[in-house]
Model the fold of this input.
Amino acid sequence: MLDLRKRARFGAYRSDLMIAHVSETICYALPARMAALAKSTRKNNVKIACIAWGSLLWKPGPLKLASAWMPDGPPLPLEFVRDSDDSEELALVLHEAAPLVPTYWARLDAASLDEAREMLREREKIRPQYPQWVGSIPNPHGAADERIGAWMHARELDAVVWTALPAKFAQVSERAPSAHEAIAFLAGLQGEARAKAEDYVRRVPSEIRTLYRGLFEEHLGWTPLA
Done:
């Protein structure tokens, strides 16, 4: 009887050791696995995409593309609500109050997420102190966009980047112009500034039909080029 009790206590002791070992393994293995997943985008065969809707489509600049632009990007809320920093155009940017519209995407020739983010930051002339204006999944600077995340996983991509510049009007960041303000701003442009603003709006693919775009067509005659 004594021997059976000793063996029972020993068995319980071994069970406790095994549970402690498994718990310790989980505690250390999960963070290690998460870190490995984050580093996986540094492999040469990584599949990284860029989502676009504006001038990136016809003027990618330093963005190294590994494919043509494809029209089945994730539907996103976009509007012409950013007074550009380096021109007089009203840029098309993410704007949560806007309806969802189609976007485009292309594969990037980038070996890592860091490289892809830096290429896009350079193309968009985003200052280094605003890393959140380069959106990405994985996202080192905030929560991931679930809409883009679902689209990315459906296409078996490892990572994706996009421009996340906020609205800006009258030199006020995150302020979106009203439809009336946007039309009045563009209508007041003259000469080369007006020509560049018109060219930008008209070059945006015709299927990206926002509320403001319809008003630009009605009031300014700026219909899509294609």
In short: Residues 2-39 form the longest helix (38 residues). The chain has two domains: 2-42, 48-220. The CA atoms of residues 202 and 224 lie 4 Å apart.
